[in-house]
Write a structure and sequence with these properties.
This protein folds into two domains: about 35 residues; about 120 residues, Glutaredoxin. Helices cover about 35% and strands about 20% of the residues. The protein is built from six helices and nine strands; from the N terminus they run αββαβββααβαβββα. The strands form two sheets. It has a seven-stranded mixed β-sheet with strand order 4-3-7-6-5-8-9. A two-stranded antiparallel sheet has the order 1-2.
């Protein structure tokens, strides 16, 4: 076989492509891959910016979810406190505290309580959700992969966001639910 014959390739259409044309096709494929990689990098940066953690001074974003009774909930401005539990242990401790305060307590305090259930296996949900339904207070369920991405998290602690009447975050605290639950609802200290 001649050198020219060795540099030829067969294409899907059974035509013969020379070595130069094969290099062009390969280059086009590489350019295509680079463009897609660039697009994914831009989309990743946008997603990262969208998931930037809340900080003092940020405006709290509205959200929709369901509660433990599968009833829809849409956040409306007016909450003073947003309390988030990321772990089962912190959620149980918070629920025990709220249970002693009665069904109306969170509403009276202008507070919402969100429990992370994302990633909870189906068998665990089969036990956890019926237990949650027994609590008299409303538990909002954080069930999406990105639902709680903006909330700062600290292991074994609740995250508490304090909001002003306009919905601006004025304070972010991490509270030990076994020792400091009452402190969440204490009146703000005079400045």
């Amino acid at each position: 076989m001649s050198a020219a014959g060795k540099c030829q390739r067969r294409t899907a259409g059974n035509g013969v492509v020379g070595a130069g044309e094969a290099a062009i096709v390969g280059g086009m494929k590489l350019l295509f891959l680079i463009r897609w990689a660039g697009l994914f990098a831009v989309l990743g940066a946008v997603a990262a910016a969208a998931a930037e953690k809340y900080k003092v001074g940020d405006t709290f974003a509205a959200f929709s979810t369901k509660d433990q009774h599968d009833k829809p909930y849409t956040y409306e401005p007016g909450a003073r406190l947003v309390i988030v539990s990321f772990e089962m242990g912190t959620g149980k401790a918070a629920n025990t505290f709220f249970e002693t305060k009665g069904a109306a307590f969170l509403g009276e305090q202008k507070a919402v309580f969100i429990a992370n259930i994302h990633g909870m296996p189906g068998i665990a949900r089969a036990f956890a959700l019926p237990k949650m339904r027994k609590y008299p207070h409303r538990i909002l369920l954080g069930d999406g992969a990105d639902f709680l991405a903006r909330y700062p998290e600290k292991e074994d602690f609740l995250t508490v966001l304090t909001l002003d009447p306009k919905g601006t975050i004025t304070e972010i605290r991490h509270v030990n639910p076994k020792k400091e639950m009452a402190s969440i609802f204490a009146p703000p200290a005079a400045k």
